[in-house]
Amino acid sequence: MPAPDSEAAAIAAWRAEQYPRPAVTVDLVVLTVTDTDLKVLLIRRRDPPFQHCRALPGGFVRVGAGPDEPGEDLEAAAHRELNEETGLPRGSAYLEQLYTFGRAGRDPRGRVITVAYYALVRPDLAPLVTAGTDAEGVEWCSVGEVDRAALAFDHGQILDAAMARVRGKIDYTPIAFDLVPPTFTVTELRAVYEAIKGSEDDPGNFRRRFKRMVEDGLIEQAPGKRLTGKRPARVYRFVRR
Amino acid sequence: MPAPDSEAAAIAAWRAEQYPRPAVTVDLVVLTVTDTDLKVLLIRRRDPPFQHCRALPGGFVRVGAGPDEPGEDLEAAAHRELNEETGLPRGSAYLEQLYTFGRAGRDPRGRVITVAYYALVRPDLAPLVTAGTDAEGVEWCSVGEVDRAALAFDHGQILDAAMARVRGKIDYTPIAFDLVPPTFTVTELRAVYEAIKGSEDDPGNFRRRFKRMVEDGLIEQAPGKRLTGKRPARVYRFVRR
DNA sequence: CCAAAAGTGTTAACAGTACACCCATGG
DNA sequence: CCATGGGTGTACTGTTAACACTTTTGG
Question: Which of strand D's nucleotides are less than 7 A from any protein C-beta?
Fold first, then answer.
């Protein structure tokens, strides 16, 4: 441990240097599944640059001015932006850091590095989203139909990265349970897998996989049945750990 | 597309605002496997904070001053730091972004966000590393023996994240080939898997897996044999795509 | 009764696991 | 000739994939 005096002096000297710094933002790829189709939340930008263009929700990370005001954590910034831009209450979505995009020319305003997160929203909460103050509106867009090139900044690339991540994790992690209502049927969960992977899944085989999850205690049966068109289906719920 | 004038004006206005910004660094978890043991490259810090402590190599991302000097890409910064801190030529290691650490209090100097990368270095290049100017020395440390709590900043946490990532990818991606010399034997490759997973692998079963990779064209036999103690072994090379 | 979705069963192919065994070489 | 690592074969197991089949409902 070095002497506190020299340490403090070194820190003060470093603060005085002040090399140019980049601005840092967080951007969010907010996903849900409705009508067996994967959707991403896009805003329409109120202000330049890319005014009136579609973009991912996001904003600047708050950094305090003084030495003893460091500001907010990155996670906190992501949660705050999700709340501000969608109106959804905190903790109502699964949030995970995705990747950091720092190409030198990615923002016309100068050097802006963005830490991208993705969020998974349950379909029963999806209709509740409302536009924040820096957006003219918000919209759930079918991921398959989004024109990547028409998005602001490098947001098309960020969307692609999120898709790759989610597709890679769907079979090995419980993220699918963040894309169904609190209680769900076998077919509803299967629809989530199919929407994300973009391929059909054999109903019988999926059911067996589902059964294993029940045996492993990952899922348990819930009371009641779902009346969905034809024959009513049993409902289940995810067992959090 | 908005009018160029209003766009430019908006950008100028934004530049003038100048909210406080974080400093941004890149940190590197440089890994290799020597003597069937996974090693990480640690430096000893020449300057405060954490003077004389062990730390991951890294440094600040260069950001240009003027509007038309955006600076270097994040990837470029990571490659530059790897070269500066190890002396290894560019392109001699596999480099991949790991995670961005932005806890508000992680650096005593103020708000510093770090984009962590991990690098995989072939064992035949490992002895060539030399210390950079901001380090008193560099050392390959056995990952199992590193005292996480004794590392500078949150570097212990970053090391753990790198280990988790590499362990998760070793069975599903070709990263193991970045941890063996250009030509290698079956046993050498198996040693890499064992060092990373920390568990023994049945030689016969691994051999069969290896054979499948040869049949799939991922690996091809190379001329010559390796004289390693007892019976000489066939050597192979990875087929890049 | 019919269509459609819920739910069950059967089978072949394949990859992982455990383990027994032969081969070639340096000492 | 023998210890050691190189290299092969085999039997068992669990998972996946494809597909035929029965059951229960609404119309």
Answer: 3-10, 16-20, 23-26
